[in-house]
Aspartate aminotransferase family protein
Amino acid sequence: MQRSYVIKPELGKSYPFVSHGKGIYLYDKEGNRYIDGCSGAVTASIGHGVEEIAEAMYAQARSVSFAYRSHFSSDAVEELGAKLAEWAPGSLNWSFFVSSGSEATETAQKIAIQYWQEKGYATKNRIISRWMSYHGITMGALSMSGHVLRRKRFVPLLADGPKISPPYPYRRPEGMSLEAYALACANELETAILRIGPEHVAAFIAEPVIGASGGAVVPPDGYFQRIREICDKYQVLFIADEVMTGVGRTGKPFGIDHWGVQPDLMALGKGMSAGYTPMAAAMATDDIIETIARGSGLIMAGHTYSANPQSAAVSLAVLRYVEKHQLVEKAAERGAYLLSRLRELADELPLIGEARGLGMLCGLEFVKDKKTREPFPLAQGVTARIIKRAFEKGLLIYPATGGLDGVAGDAVIIAPPLTITTEEIDELIALLKESIASVEQELRQEALL
Ligand code: PMP
């Protein structure tokens, strides 16, 4: 094989070459088939190889692919903006288009800070976030992220923003009710705001369901309602990071819709274009945009590819496809089936401490001892072993480990395309079961279990 000069996730490791995809399946050039059990990075939510998206892509490219946003708007961009305003809750009507989830959360962060500046509160510029969170890899987004492993090398360069505990029901204090736990976790936000002073706090950011740093950790009811109350009390904006949970993934249009809470800003990515093109957005309310319009009138953010017609046309076609095939409803229905099958696995297999999730965003947490919930030491690489074994058997699943560092050890995300059928879910479960059971055996042989 030709020498590679591509910097890959693991240097020195060789990766199979993908050849094509269809539905929930990906194929490599050697003819192996893989179930895309995590939609890549929880991205390919309408499945692979959808013809009508390719057609929309071609049609836009034939007229114009790129026109700079400082020069032109376009039908594709305007229609996408209008479609998202329809989808998003309440007065979240405005979209700032970017190309990745990191850019989306970072743009939301900037808009929040600028909003307070325009209102004359220049010191309101800190963002409070949570441990066990992931908001992106660029420095601003990483500053807000409570993903311990991804932060470690860069800590001295990161902006200083307080982090509070997320609700993590599986590991809540023994004997505490979910209701009391929800309030205790949310009230940490009030404590953090009071410690640094509300005059220094621009916004609070959270993922409605914790993804990459926890493995589909769902908050108890009441948590986000209390967060909203606290934000209102201290004039702090609430940013919902819907990069992973948005556009139907959890069985509602957006994750936060499960609790009927209205964010001030929302970050979207991943499922917004289902992987057919890089596309993401920061969405803001009427109040925020009208305030900035009355002030400087210019949002200080943006990238070369922001609001390019090509990506907008593809994303619009994806949203229309989701609507036409009722994939939000399907995610709710089939996601419930997937979770019930994962819970059966959790009952059977000693390695699984908990199966959890919402809609088609599910997770498994692996433990050394099911009774005490004792985690494996991270160095034993249990998640990596399970992912590798599943890959060998033709199943892709996504790690959600690093964020748990110091709290717990191992978790994965199971989040197939929203189009998956129940038969395909059964096929996924069978491979998952074999993979976990095989790693269990290996750990026993090494006397690690
Ligand atoms: N926010 C959340 C909740 C995410 O899951 C991710 C990606 N895993 C990001 C932000 C960053 O998105 P991207 O990788 O597209 O920059």
